[in-house]
Amino acid sequence: MDVRRIALLPLVVGAVAALGGPGAPARAATVAANGLLDAFAGEPAAAPAPAAATLPGRWRLNFALPSYDTRRSIVAEFEDLPGYEPPQGALYLVDGDGARAAAGTWQLSEDPDDRKDGLWVWGLFEEPLYPFLLCALDSDRLGLPEGGRLAVRLDHKARPTDGGPLLTRGTVAVRQKENVDADRLGLSRAAVAVDTPIGTVTAQPMKAPGAAAAPAPAPG
Question: Which of 7, 112, 183, 211 is 20 to 30 Å from the Cα of 56, by its Cα?
């Protein structure tokens, strides 16, 4: 990437994103901006390479929920929603026959308790680091009371060059909505999410045909 492209790319990306509206995916805006710069420079646009899955394959998630005196093991797939930053998508559970059922959503994230100020545009020049995977999972999928939502937070390998599996271990909480005063006078109310910890979870990539299984994380 030459100096002129580095200088112009944030401006062009901003213009493309503005034309696409506030919901325009960041990655889509970036791809479109690069295409415009190639056209102005007289460079042929390269054919886009197929995007690799963020969390490929199937994963066994082992839940230990002492608050409910329950242990559960499920097989999950993380399907990408193309074109969004941070990476995110749909969470599916896979039964013994290989059939999939939608069970929630997932998203890579910075530390949700310590978000840094910054702009996603910096991710154009260096791959963003997302040390956590956040999942919202239907509670009945683990045999818990229906109608609830579980907030699952797993450690995620932020740098592809680091050793070890993409996912390791994390925490599980029940997420409930509570109404609180939105102003000091109590004239308006707002619903906020309140998480109550109930246990832990470990993740292990499933063995592919003909491949050795990855070691399970040590108990935390």
Answer: 112
How far is it, in rounded angstroms, from Cα 42 to Cα 2?
14
Contacts of 217 (CB under 8 A, 6+ apart): 165, 168, 169, 202, 203, 204
Mean pLDDT by 10 residues, the chain (220 residues): 49 50 50 48 53 88 93 95 92 94 94 57 58 93 82 88 86 82 68 86 80 51
List the Cα angle 90/132/84 in 5-degree steps: 45
With beta carbons less than 8 A apart as the criterion, state whether 139 and 148 touch: yes
Task: Read off the tokens for 119.
Answer: 């702009």
Amino acid at 140: D
pTM of the full predicted structure? 0.67
Measured CA to CA, the distance from residue 197 to residue 183 in angstroms comes to: 28
Rounded Cα distance between 61 and 92, Å, is 12
C-beta of residue 131 within 8 angstroms of C-beta of residue 155: yes
Is there a contact between 83 and 75 (Cβ–Cβ < 8 Å)? Answer: no
Q: In angstroms, rounded to a whole number, what is the distance separating the alpha carbons of residues 42 and 129?
A: 33
Q: Where are the beta strands (DSSP E) in the chain?
A: 58-65, 70-80, 88-94, 100-109, 132-138, 149-156, 167-181, 189-205
